[in-house]
From TrEMBL, chains A, B:
Pfam name, any one: polyprenyl_synt
PANTHER family according to UniProt: GERANYLGERANYL PYROPHOSPHATE SYNTHASE, SHORT CHAIN ISOPRENYL DIPHOSPHATE SYNTHASE
Originating species: Arthrobacter alpinus
Keywords from the named record: Magnesium, Metal-binding, Transferase
Lineage: superkingdom: Bacteria
Entry-linked Gene3D superfamilies: Farnesyl Diphosphate Synthase
Cofactor annotation: Mg(2+)
Single GO BP term: isoprenoid biosynthetic process
Top-level taxonomy: Bacteria, Bacillati, Actinomycetota, Actinomycetes, Micrococcales
Protein name: Polyprenyl synthetase
Length: 367, 367
């Protein structure tokens, strides 16, 4: 690395740290105010805000950072309040999505700790309350997610983006698309086995586009650009970079969900297989596997009672069918497409370097 | 009725009908646009918007109408677009709340038809999809509710109320309060039996204030007034009318939930008792009943397997303990307080008459 590249990297890191700290402060102040509001209703409801606080304290802030560099790339100032609020709104939206996702996927852990519904079920058990602890956990988590979704929107509305503005349109589109994508995801879990196996990959690709790539990558970057008044051409260029990047990111997530180290991912081994996620990795597997192996995959994916041996066989089929290698190849192609598009964008060197670093971290991470 | 009173009643009915039709049109156009968006993702996701459409087509539009007369009472014009959008946003919010409520309460019916999670479970069964139909139903309904909540906010944002405006503050407060109130509701179901029975009524009163009265009555009326630029004094007067009215409305709902005619309410007999709702009616019962009856109530409320005989005994205890009579007395007192406050409001005769009619319908209804 040259001295000038090192200096750029250092200044990017400082700028990112300042932004991330500002987003955390914004979330902290906002959630404290909401805690005071809920306390005025009943101290018993404070646990809702505390759950949200715990959840949004963690995380990599990837969406907020993409929004930030989208903003900076379109000429936004480094220390502007709007982009901090937008970043906080994205983090709250992600929090809401995770709370409800974990109910849907029956995930008991999140970022190494208990998921929200699990934490409420534990509270129920500890207090020896009446009726069913699981049901209470789910109900409380549905409400916590709803509250977090409202908070996200309230935070976004506080920016004051006009009703017909591009930024508002992106925010609206993001929410509708991710919910539609999540529905396609659960639909594929139940209807996938009865559909042709040679279209499984294209179905899985559509799911990750809407459930993940647009929501986690494209829309945050474009939102930042739109808030700063970026041109339609610039925002289209953002999409050309961020959409394939987001797809590669989700493919990496799917690989880690099966082959990742539980100590690093914070999720138990085989969790994605028990959830029955019909990912591109699974699609490639059932498309390429022999009949016996395909039948084994179809009849075991989504079973809560999978044994370590069954998980081992599922992993072996994914490797032997070249599905894992195929997924890694797709990650490479999508990454190359994304970074080629990034190189074409008319961005200042520091913005370009920051987006490049974020992108590389997203597709080659281990957790 | 005098000729002039009849003329007023007729003109109110015409004006209300025009507003309700405008809200329905607004919802129809909006949901058609959202249907087109979802269809562009995948035709499979259209069912999400269709579920919302079915749900928001029914209902009494009580919240939208309160918003409307709040707007008119503060000088808003009869045919303004803002209040139509606000009414549509409130109806969408109510739709989202109902979808998630029905999951939480395990209610299989809504307005005489299947609830959303039940409809998705039936779809799963009809298509003979894999894995569990109940789980799919819940997951799909969580996502549909989230989508509907986002739609509500998108509709409200399209009004263009400024970030720091009173109307936006009311909309934000409404959402946080109702979610906190719903949490207190499910918390009381599980923790109520272990708390002192002589405070059950005051706990149940706090729940209906936040879960229902503020959300269904006070906030819609104040929202309409705030959008039209009503004075702080007028809006405070609105609260003095609408808060006790909303409490009386919910007490009526609780009575109907136990003693109502299933043919008229559209809910099976005993549904509220199986759900284990710890209403004011229940609070009065366990406070006044003898030890044996109280024990029977505490050990049977919330059981999914209640027999007709057990439901009959629960109802008998509510009557014999004078809890039903006490609830009716509370409805009378709250109604009188509300209508006395209404009489003090500086409103035109038609607005006052419209709010009076809405109020009387809310507290003396049979469905």
């Amino acid at each position: 690395m040259t001295a000038s590249a090192a200096a750029t990297e250092n200044s990017i890191a400082l700028e990112q740290d300042a932004f991330v700290a500002a987003v955390s402060d914004q979330l902290g102040v906002f959630l404290s105010e909401k805690g005071a509001l809920l306390a005025s209703i009943s101290a018993d409801t404070l646990v809702l805000v505390d759950s949200i606080k715990t959840l949004v304290t963690g995380g990599k802030r990837m969406r907020a950072l993409l929004c930030y560099w989208g903003w900076r790339g379109a000429g936004g100032a480094p220390d502007a309040a709007e982009v901090v609020m937008a970043g906080a709104a994205l983090e709250l939206f992600q929090g809401a999505a995770l709370i409800h996702d974990d109910i849907i996927d029956r995930s008991d852990t999140r970022r190494g700790g208990p998921s929200v519904h699990r934490a409420f079920a534990t509270l129920h058990a500890e207090r020896r309350w009446a009726l069913d602890e699981e049901r209470f956990g789910h109900a409380a988590a549905i409400l916590t997610g709803d509250l977090c979704l409202s908070f996200s929107e309230e935070m976004f509305a506080s920016i004051g983006a006009e009703a017909g503005s591009r930024a508002r349109a992106v925010f609206n589109l993001m929410r509708a698309e991710v919910m539609a994508g999540q529905y396609l995801d659960i639909l594929e879990e139940v209807s996938g086995p009865s559909k042709p196996h040679n279209t499984a990959v294209s179905r899985a690709s559509a799911i990750i586009r809407y459930k993940s790539a647009k929501y986690s990558s494209e829309h945050p970057l474009v939102l930042g650009g739109a808030l700063a008044g970026g041109s339609a051409k610039l925002l289209a260029g953002y999409s050309e970079f961020a959409l394939p990047l987001g797809e590669a990111f989700q493919l990496r997530d799917d690989v880690l969900g099966v082959f990742g180290d539980p100590a690093q991912t914070g999720k138990p081994a085989g969790d994605d297989l028990r959830e029955g996620k019909r990912t591109v990795l699974v699609g490639l597997t059932i498309d390429a596997a022999n009949d016996a192996d395909r039948k084994f995959v179809d009849s075991h994916l989504g079973r809560q009672d999978l044994t370590a041996e069954q998980i081992g066989r599922l992993c072996a089929i994914m490797v032997d069918s070249q599905a894992l290698a195929g997924t890694e190849a797709m990650i490479s192609v999508l990454s190359a497409t994304a970074f080629a598009a990034l190189a074409e964008l008319p961005l200042a060197a520091d913005v370009s370097a920051a987006l490049s670093a974020l992108g590389h971290a997203a597709v080659s991470r281990a957790s």
